[in-house]
């Protein structure tokens, strides 16, 4: 009986995935605070009652959007690179290279949803601000852990500060997201990525390394 009540407000032929995709694009383009229920229901092709029946309130919808985004190629590439690349340098280079392409891709809103959606959050939406900040902090911690292991394995010099290095590359990624929203092209962002990789600490041996993004 509860299930019937949940579905009562949904229009015939309701496509949850399509509705979620429409909501994702709105939140991604305009941020959480600037996206209204009216805009959401209009883009999703449903009435307010249907939105609440299918997703709960606006905050619940946004949290589901972010979780879904994190599993997508546009939102999950950082974690994939950290897991898949053989070296930490290769992982960071891949993250920056892919960020340049993903953030400027014209097929979807520019930049990163979890970075841009946090703008213009009102005091009433402090829980959303904290939610997004926690996600970014988790990403920073994951990168720091990979860099710490790289130092332990001898890939990074013994005097490297993994926290500071991770924070630097996280700041570059966030800056690339904003530049993409300002209209930066993939070529410009790739150039930024290449320059950022020059900050990678030189090995203790003093041997030269290829400074291109492909090195890893």
From TrEMBL:
Keyword DNA-binding: yes
Domain of life where this protein originates: Bacteria
Residue ranges the UniProt entry marks as DNA-binding: 36-55
Keyword terms: DNA-binding, Transcription, Transcription regulation
Entries under InterPro entries matching the protein: Homeodomain-like_sf (IPR009057), HTH_TetR (IPR001647), Tet_transcr_reg_TetR-rel_C_sf (IPR036271), TetR_C (IPR011075)
Span of domain HTH tetR-type: 13-73
Record-given protein name: TetR/AcrR family transcriptional regulator
Lineage summary: Bacteria, Bacillati, Actinomycetota, Actinomycetes, Streptosporangiales
């Amino acid at each position: 009986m509860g299930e019937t009540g949940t579905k009562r407000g949904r229009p015939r032929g309701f496509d949850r995935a399509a509705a979620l995709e429409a909501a994702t694009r709105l939140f991604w383009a305009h941020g959480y605070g600037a996206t209204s229920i009216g805009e959401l229901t209009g883009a999703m092709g449903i009435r307010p009652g249907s939105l609440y029946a299918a997703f709960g309130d606006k905050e619940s919808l946004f949290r589901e959007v972010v979780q879904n985004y994190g599993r997508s190629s546009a939102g999950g590439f950082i974690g994939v690179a950290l897991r898949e690349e053989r070296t930490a340098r290769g992982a960071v280079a891949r993250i920056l290279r892919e960020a340049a392409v993903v953030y400027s891709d014209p097929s979807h809103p520019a930049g990163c949803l979890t970075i841009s959606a946090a703008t213009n959050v009102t005091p009433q939406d402090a829980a959303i601000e904290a939610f997004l900040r926690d996600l970014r902090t988790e990403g920073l911690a994951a990168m720091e852990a990979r860099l710490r292991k790289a130092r332990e394995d001898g890939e990074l010099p013994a005097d490297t500060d993994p926290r500071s290095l991770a924070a630097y590359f996280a700041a570059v990624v966030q800056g690339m997201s904003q530049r993409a929203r300002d209209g930066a092209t993939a070529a410009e962002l790739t150039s930024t990525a290449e320059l950022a990789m020059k900050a990678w600490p030189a090995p203790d041996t003093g041997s030269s390394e290829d400074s291109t993004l492909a090195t890893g």
